[in-house]
Amino acid sequence: MRFLHTADLHLGRSFPFTDSALRAVGKRDRFETFRNILRRADRYEAEYVFLVGDIFEQKKISREEVDFALAEMANCSATILLLLGNHDFTLYPYLTERVPENVYLFNQEGSDVFTDERHRIDFHGVSWSRDSHHKILEIDPTGLREGFRHVLLHHGNWTGGDGYFPVDANILPYFDYIALGHVHKPILYENKLQMCGTPEPLDHTDRGRLGIVSGALTDHLETEYISLARRSVIGENFHRRGDADDEAILRRVREFSDDGTRIYTIAITGAYSGVFDASIRATLEEMEIPYEIRWARDLPKIVKALEKRHANDQFGTFLEKVKAHPMDDDLRERVYDLGIRAVLGDEYDS
């Protein structure tokens, strides 16, 4: 029995780019990666594709996009075993009425089983029904059928009580393969126990190899981790002490290159500058390089504190007017930055 194991695609979501055009590209990347997984199943002649939770991002995906994903599943030659996680469980009623014939959706009412009589395999799983599960998934081994092999699909952590539906470690000896989703980094606990991770980066922490698990369960189990991500995250860290560092940082930024497979995530500590932030963004956009910039300074928190401190003076009035004025968030942050720097001076960077 050949299979592919994936999870945490979060279709409908994008990498957190500031630029709306880049967000649209990031969103398309995820759908294209999903299509590639299904096409790989056809080429690999996989009999099953395991979709182990958070395939959709319920707060961001449209019904038309869900229908598109279901149509892609219908065109796949494999049987698709789908369960829902903490980011797509609210789609259960919509999906139950629309899943194609080759898709089995695990229910939300306790442990569910899909049986392959030809291979004599029972596939066990349960879809989430809420956004946190402060309990451990426990399975009574006496209820597992003799003469059958057993595969568990589960969206949750391997052991540990953290509110994300961990698995009771004592069940490991009774299963031939346990396909996990939820953690975005791939984790090979052992050959028959694997967290596949997300196949496409969702934020700056998703670095390294990202892909899917390809496997075959015959008289023994063989698995292989296949890199599949369309883009990889490249991290760059800078410390800015003041204006004197700006040219050196920009010089390094201008050395970035992109062949259509990279996302640069830039972390900057030290003295925040809205003007310099705009300069970096303009440079990267001119180079047409996908990027994300994260400053260590928490500007919204600073603004909130200053609003309280200056509630009854002219600076407080300035902050209120900036907050109320119709402008996009990037421009608002730059106006805040210039105004706060003009009033606080060196204290702002301390």
TrEMBL record:
Pfam families for this protein: Metallophos (PF00149)
GO molecular function, one term: exonuclease activity
Entry annotated with the keyword Nuclease: yes
Keywords tagged on the record: Exonuclease, Hydrolase, Nuclease
Annotated Calcineurin-like phosphoesterase domain residues: 1-186
Superkingdom field: Bacteria
PANTHER family for this protein: COMPONENT OF ATP-DEPENDENT DSDNA EXONUCLEASE
Name by which UniProt lists this protein: Exonuclease subunit SbcD
